[in-house]
């Protein structure tokens, strides 16, 4: 509650006029207090949509390993989703912005046009996934997700604990942990790719969703990177271009490769 102090009625008003003025002043004062109080409530509500800033004792770097072990104990997708949501909602919008800045630093040397597309998609993914988690948590979606978490999927959290065990990599472990929480939610709870549909990769290919199946152009690169999401991602490798199976969502380069393939291997003479 905000109180009004050091406000005095006009000195020149006397008698009945003074009483009327005082009554009007008190009325306006009450309206002002109510208005300010409502504003503060609205501001708190808006910030509450994104969760609270985590205090150091809530998500310290040293406890990421223990939190990963807790996540490994989840037996169903719903239970895992609820546990992930409980951690993600402790973060604030500033943490998401920090993740975005960290990513922009990592891709600053890429081709400007590609960098802009990629950064926009990653930002969309970060904000969208956080919002999805908040809504799923509010709507009680987790009670309906009874499917079991497979033993191989639980290994994801072992990888996360290793990757968040130190400050190497240019970002704080607690921020890195948030990145893996969001990816884990997408892959293990929602059964969606760790990179959102439409995420571009060098060469023009993108993560695609066709005929109820997710396709990723780098799915087979799982063994090339220790921290890759690929082993835990439900997406399939984007099919090779051929006479019987063209690209699921062809780029101009894909179309030309398809034409060349037909000409070279199927005696296409025009």
UniProtKB/TrEMBL annotation:
InterPro entries: DUF2115. PROSITE patterns: PROKAR_LIPOPROTEIN (PS51257). Belongs to the UPF0305 family. This is UPF0305 protein Metfor_1682. The lineage of its organism: Archaea, Methanobacteriati, Methanobacteriota, Stenosarchaea group, Methanomicrobia.
């Amino acid at each position: 509650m905000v109180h009004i102090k050091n406000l005095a009625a006009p000195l020149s008003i006397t008698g009945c006029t003074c009483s009327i003025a005082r009554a009007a002043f008190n009325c306006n004062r009450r309206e002002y207090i109510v208005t300010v109080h409502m504003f503060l409530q609205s501001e708190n509500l808006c910030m509450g949509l994104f969760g609270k800033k985590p205090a150091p004792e809530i998500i310290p770097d040293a406890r990421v390993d223990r939190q990963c072990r807790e996540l490994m104990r989840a037996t169903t997708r719903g239970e895992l989703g609820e546990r992930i949501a409980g951690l993600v909602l402790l973060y604030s919008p500033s943490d998401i912005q920090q993740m975005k800045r960290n990513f922009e630093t990592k891709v600053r040397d890429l081709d400007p046009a590609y960098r802009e597309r990629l950064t926009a998609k990653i930002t969309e993914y970060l904000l969208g996934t956080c919002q999805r988690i908040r809504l799923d948590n509010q709507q009680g979606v987790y009670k309906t997700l009874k499917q079991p978490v497979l033993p191989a999927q639980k290994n994801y959290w072992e990888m996360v604990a290793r990757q968040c065990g130190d400050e190497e990599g240019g970002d704080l472990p607690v921020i890195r942990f948030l990145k893996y929480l969001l990816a884990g939610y997408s892959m293990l709870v929602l059964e969606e790719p760790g990179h959102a549909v439409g995420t571009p990769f060098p060469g023009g290919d993108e993560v695609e969703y066709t005929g109820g199946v997710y396709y990723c152009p780098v799915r087979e690169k799982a063994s090339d990177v220790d921290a890759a999401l690929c082993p835990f991602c439900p997406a399939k490798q984007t099919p090779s271009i051929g006479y019987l199976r063209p690209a699921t969502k062809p780029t101009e380069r894909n179309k030309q490769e398809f034409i060349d393939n037909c000409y070279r291997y199927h005696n296409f003479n025009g």
